[in-house]
Automatic annotation (TrEMBL):
GO cellular component, one term: Golgi apparatus
Organism listed in the record: Cucumis sativus (Cucumber)
Protein's name in the database: O-fucosyltransferase family protein
Amino acid sequence: MAFPRTQKPKPKPRSPLIFFFVSLSAIAFLFLFSSLISTNGSSSFPSSNSIQKIFRLKNLTQKQRRNRHFFSVNDKFLYWGNRIDCPGKHCESCEGLGHQESSLRCALEEAMFLQRTFVMPSRMCINPIHNKKGLLHQSNSSSEESWEANSCAMDSLYDMDLISDTVPVILDNSKSWYQVLSTGMKLGARAVGHVEKVSRIELRDSSRYSNLLLINRTASPLSWFMECKDRNNHSAVMLPYKFLPSMAAENLRDAAEKIKGLLGDYDAIHVRRGDKIKTRKDRFGVDRSLHPHLDRDTRPEFMLKRIAKWVPAGRTLFIASNERIPGFFSPLSARYKLAYSSNYSDILDPVVQNNYQLFMIERLIMAGAKTLIRTFKEDDTDLSLTDDPKKNTKAWQIPVYTDEERR
């Protein structure tokens, strides 16, 4: 599979003096690079020492803050493509943040398992359903341009240095990645392996793959995270669900800390309604839903009954929700002091450009609550608003809006 070319960002205008030093550095690099190749005699492949010097030169040009993770001749890399979940059935549709994080976590786990540096896609697609801020939609643009317009920089969501403390990563628009590709082109078949339907154990143990500089993985045609076949075996999960939420970009973490400081001692509740409350008519014209109690259980009058045993009256309750009706949760104010992210626009507006960033901040706030109540149970110890299973059961049932117990 051919690697897609990632266009370098256009350089900003620089002063003549800076331009001179940049040009001088580039000439010096080319001179050094050509001299390294020429020392190899008739071979067209650079030696191990030359590769090491290339990476060493790269490290010297990085800012001190980005200099925590060095690359050497012994480093190897894993590439899964320039889009999360693509190749796969979601290349065009673009799934939500949680779905994409499942895929990204799977890829990071494989890199961790193989002890390789993961080549992180530099952009993440933003599902327009989850982005009320409304990234510009270009109706006359190509699918590639449309995807670019409806995506955001990966490092605007996650802290690459923080992730690299656990799994070393580089972005696919970085100088490091271009140098890996350049080195791979020099080494040819000895450097790059294009693999599909190969287990991670074989990638690790077989010398056919383990000695390659770069493994280019063709992921499952369904979606990336389908590669994690043993996801249900929790002992085999190397990175927990909370890993990526805790890896939020530094400015997002700072915003969350400021809001948490203003909230003080608080509880939190995540109410997922908009994208989960869906009905369809059966052949008799009767509405049915995959989550028959969800609409009822996430209405304020039923929420008050459900959470009373967990959250005492008078407590500050932070609510994160995708409910679009203004004032929908106001009845809860009869018992609690309500707080929303919209109450802190002076902190969030300078930081948040899309709903993915907003939700990542809200997740950090919810994680700091004394008591956290989710919409669905993630595990047996969770407190939840509804007993309906989160996973799609494919069983369309008649919605229940009364206090009657489920049959």
